[in-house]
């Protein structure tokens, strides 16, 4: 065979090889694309520790721990994976995934249980109880957050705020967050156990502070660790609550009506002693341990969150002072004491509260665990994976809220889009104190704006390290002068 006659054969052979290679290459690429599409984008980081170091760097930076999530949301989109403290995590930030996970109609998700948190707030706490136990506990506690309790809280909180504000003009610099933490702590303790003694309040606030700090610490229970300090502080808080419960029972048994208490503890003990309740399934009585764990839980859930949200609100207001303040002042009530009904008339203040809650996203994401393999946003999520609904991203998504970084209370002239306003969560774990928290914020806003003008002493936007909720590191120091 000469060279010429070999040529077509070689060309044919070459074409066949090229076609075969193309096919093999295509299949490999398709397989690769398929497996990449199966699991959410992101990085598992280093073996075992995953991206824990990067997360800790964020916690330790002035931008706060949310920066870890924010930067990955930008890089990977609305669904990404990471690995933290040896566990796989997926973050989701669409309204549709928020609805599916938080409403949990499929029953496929449950709240994440963290052993070290349970050691601090108690494993009978609403925050840690199993799904079944949680249902029973919540049915007991939900009745405490009635309209009557909210009205009482408004009156008491108003009194506390008026009293606290009266001294601010003589103080030079007021570190807003510090004062607000004190006011909200007093409000919680009054509502829950009628504790008003200043010395006892101070010592309890210190101990609850240690418990909160330990919730973020490495769970190593050795004498010098932050975690140990928290465990010891929990012990002291439990002793205070035991003593209070004992005293209440003694008062009830000796029919001492001089000390009538209008607080949550009294209601819980009343159900306990007569075995009946106004509504819902109370066939199972709460144990003292359940009552104590949940009083501590409610102090933690209500104090820091509300104080942080209030501080952010004053900051946003300070940055938008003139127009917004005038509008609030115009709707001001001149009553010496505010009632719950007065607040419903303060429509613009309510929108301002909502807008502050949206922008601050004090609880930035809600952790759950997947109970069976499932698909979210087109990606496969395995059973046992931690799944986090990133509420902050939803609150700042330009497709959900136009100009999301602009403080614009009037955006709430219209209802927010479905499943897009999540400062208090959604579904079976929605914040029990949401109406109370909103009412407290309106009360403070009203009193603060109608009493004072203020200037910011330190506008540093850095975020405090090692706190459960996003707080300004400076505590937002201000100098106030009385409005004429
Ligand atoms: C601005 C203030 C507040 C904010 C932003 C806030 C936010 C939240 C959020 C987002 C959750 C749900 C977390 C999740 O689904 O994983 C929650 C739960 C809870 N909050 Fe609040 N909260 C605030 C004030 C309060 C107050 C004043 C109380 C009153 C004691 C309270 C009591 C609770 C309780 C008991 C839970 C647990 C509910 C459950 O697991 O069933 N919160 N809060």
Automatic annotation (TrEMBL):
<dbReference type="GO" id="GO:0010268">
    <property type="term" value="P:brassinosteroid homeostasis"/>
</dbReference>
<dbReference type="GO" id="GO:0016020">
    <property type="term" value="C:membrane"/>
</dbReference>
<comment type="similarity">
    <text>Belongs to the cytochrome P450 family.</text>
</comment>
<keyword id="KW-0812">Transmembrane</keyword>
<keyword id="KW-0560">Oxidoreductase</keyword>
<dbReference type="GO" id="GO:0016125">
    <property type="term" value="P:sterol metabolic process"/>
</dbReference>
<dbReference type="GO" id="GO:0020037">
    <property type="term" value="F:heme binding"/>
</dbReference>
<dbReference type="Pfam" id="PF00067">
    <property type="entry name" value="p450"/>
</dbReference>
<keyword id="KW-0472">Membrane</keyword>
<dbReference type="GO" id="GO:0016132">
    <property type="term" value="P:brassinosteroid biosynthetic process"/>
</dbReference>
<dbReference type="GO" id="GO:0004497">
    <property type="term" value="F:monooxygenase activity"/>
</dbReference>
<keyword id="KW-1133">Transmembrane helix</keyword>
<keyword id="KW-0732">Signal</keyword>
<dbReference type="GO" id="GO:0016705">
    <property type="term" value="F:oxidoreductase activity, acting on paired donors, with incorporation or reduction of molecular oxygen"/>
</dbReference>
<protein>
    <submittedName>
        <fullName>3beta,22alpha-dihydroxysteroid 3-dehydrogenase isoform X2</fullName>
    </submittedName>
</protein>
<dbReference type="InterPro" id="IPR017972">
    <property type="entry name" value="Cyt_P450_CS"/>
</dbReference>
<feature type="signal peptide">
    <location>
        <begin position="1"/>
        <end position="20"/>
    </location>
</feature>
<keyword id="KW-0349">Heme</keyword>
<dbReference type="InterPro" id="IPR001128">
    <property type="entry name" value="Cyt_P450"/>
</dbReference>
<dbReference type="GO" id="GO:0005506">
    <property type="term" value="F:iron ion binding"/>
</dbReference>
<keyword id="KW-0503">Monooxygenase</keyword>
<keyword id="KW-0479">Metal-binding</keyword>
<dbReference type="InterPro" id="IPR002401">
    <property type="entry name" value="Cyt_P450_E_grp-I"/>
</dbReference>
<keyword id="KW-0408">Iron</keyword>
<dbReference type="InterPro" id="IPR036396">
    <property type="entry name" value="Cyt_P450_sf"/>
</dbReference>
<feature type="binding site" description="axial binding residue">
    <location>
        <position position="431"/>
    </location>
    <ligand>
        <name>heme</name>
    </ligand>
</feature>
């Amino acid at each position: 065979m000469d060279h010429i006659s070999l040529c077509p054969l070689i060309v044919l052979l070459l074409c066949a090889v090229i076609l075969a290679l193309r096919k093999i290459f295509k299949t490999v690429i398709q397989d690769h694309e398929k497996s990449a599409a199966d699991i959410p984008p992101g990085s598992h980081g280093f073996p075992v520790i995953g991206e824990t170091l990067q997360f800790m760097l964020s916690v330790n930076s002035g931008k706060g721990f949310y920066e870890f999530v924010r930067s990955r949301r930008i890089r990977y989109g609305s669904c990404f994976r990471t690995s933290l403290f040896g566990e796989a995590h997926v973050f989701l930030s669409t309204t549709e995934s928020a609805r599916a996970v938080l409403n949990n109609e499929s029953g496929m998700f449950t709240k994440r249980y963290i052993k070290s948190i349970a050691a601090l707030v108690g494993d009978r706490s609403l925050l840690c109880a199993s799904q079944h136990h949680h249902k029973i506990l919540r049915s007991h506690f939900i009745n405490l957050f009635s309209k009557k309790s909210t009205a009482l809280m408004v009156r008491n909180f108003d009194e506390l705020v008026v009293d606290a504000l009266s001294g601010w003009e003589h103080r030079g610099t007021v570190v807003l967050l510090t004062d607000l933490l004190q006011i909200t702590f007093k409000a919680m303790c009054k509502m829950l156990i009628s504790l008003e003694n200043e010395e006892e309040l101070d010592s309890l606030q210190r101990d609850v502070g240690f418990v909160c700090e330990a919730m973020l610490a490495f769970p190593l229970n050795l004498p010098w660790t932050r975690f140990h300090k928290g465990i010891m502080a929990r012990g002291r808080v439990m002793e205070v609550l035991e003593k209070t419960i004992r005293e209440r029972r003694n008062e009830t048994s000796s029919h001492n009506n001089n000390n009538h208490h209008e607080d949550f503890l009294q209601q819980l003990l009343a159900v306990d002693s007569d075995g009946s309740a106004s509504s819902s399934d109370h066939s199972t009585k709460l144990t003292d341990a359940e009552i104590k764990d949940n009083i501590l839980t409610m102090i933690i859930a209500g104090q820091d969150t509300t104080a942080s949200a209030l501080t952010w609100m004053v900051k946003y207001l300070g940055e938008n002072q003139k127009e917004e303040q005038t509008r609030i002042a115009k709707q001001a009530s001149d009553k010496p004491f505010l009632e719950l009904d007065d607040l419903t008339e303060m429509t613009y203040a309510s929108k301002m509260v909502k807008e502050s809650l949206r922008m601050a996203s004090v609880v930035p994401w809600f952790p759950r665990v997947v109970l069976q393999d499932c698909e979210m946003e087109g990606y496969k999520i395995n059973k046992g994976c931690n799944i986090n609904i990133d509420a902050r991203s939803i609150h700042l998504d330009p497709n959900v809220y136009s100009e999301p970084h602009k403080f614009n209370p009037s955006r709430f002239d219209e209802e927010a889009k479905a499943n897009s306003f999540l400062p208090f969560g959604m579904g079976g774990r929605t914040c029990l104190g949401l109406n109370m928290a909103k009412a407290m914020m309106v009360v403070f806003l009203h009193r603060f704006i109608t009493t004072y003008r203020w200037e910011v002493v330190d506008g540093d936007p850095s975020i405090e390290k090692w706190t459960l909720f996003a707080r300004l590191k400076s505590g937002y120091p201000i100098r106030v002068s009385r409005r004429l």
